[in-house]
Amino acid sequence: MAYEVDWEPEGLLKRFSGFVSGREFIQAVEQTQADPRFDEAHYVINDFSEASGHSLSEETLTQISAINYGAHASNPNCRIVYVTTDESLKERVRQVLIASNMSSYQTEVCPSLAEARDWLDSQPKLHLLSNVMGFRNI
After folding, report:
1. In a 10 Å sphere around its CB, with 0-12 CB exposed, 13-18 middle and 19+ buried, how is residue 116 labelled?
2. Nearest 5°: phi and psi at 129?
3. Burial level of 92, CB count in 10 A (0-12/13-18/19+)?
4. 72 φ, ψ to 5°?
5. How far apart are CA 90 and CA 81, in angstroms?
6. How far is CA 83 from CA 11, 46, 101, in A?
7. For the segment 13-44, what is each residue's pLDDT rounded down to a tens digit?
8. 54 — phi, psi (to 5°)?
């Protein structure tokens, strides 16, 4: 798997190509969320339109859900979009990252990068407080 990250003023675009394994995708998510710029990101676009295939199983996406749950504490103002036309990936994302009890970030699946950006533009800005220092418990 190859991927490139473009940090944009409001968020980031990750473009995946080749075959994307579950382990590699988890590592890409962890690396992105470990970057200090992630704390200010308002969106992450995971663009799979150039991927030739993937092994993103339900288990992989459950791990991503747990990772996102932790990252949500430091940046609750982010949305995540998956760009894909792969029906199995769309269905798994919807089941595990959107409809499950462990969902944290608002997540959407779009068939093109243009539609992903349109969806993001149609959403109101989030202005939630981070819970890293327990501020929401006051």
Report:
1. buried
2. -80, 140
3. buried
4. -60, -30
5. 11
6. 15, 6, 23
7. 999 999 999 999 999 999 999 999 999 999 99
8. -160, 165
Amino acid at 69: Y
Spell out the residues 6+ positions from residue 10 whose beta carbon is closer than 8 angstroms to its own: 41, 42, 43
Q: What is the pLDDT of residues 59-87, one digit of tens each?
A: 999 999 999 998 998 899 999 999 999 99
The full set of domains in the chain, from first to last, is 2-137 (3.30.750.24)
Residue carrying structure tokens 């988890």: 26
Q: Is the dihedral of CA 111, 120, 30, 36 positive or negative?
A: positive
